[in-house]
Design a protein that fits this description.
The chain is an all-alpha fold and about 40 residues long. The protein is about 95% helix and about 0% strand.
């Protein structure tokens, strides 16, 4: 019981980290495009 709980917790942490990583990557891409767009408009 405890082992499966720990396993599930680890799995959840991995999923959360993966999710956050993807969000950060998307934010980086978006801010990069925004930056290029802003610089390009000047």
């Amino acid at each position: 019981m405890m082992i499966s709980y720990l396993f599930n917790t680890e799995l959840n942490i991995n999923l959360i980290l993966n999710y956050l990583f993807k969000k950060v990557e998307l934010l980086k891409k978006a801010s990069g495009m925004l930056w290029i767009f802003t610089v390009g408009s000047f």
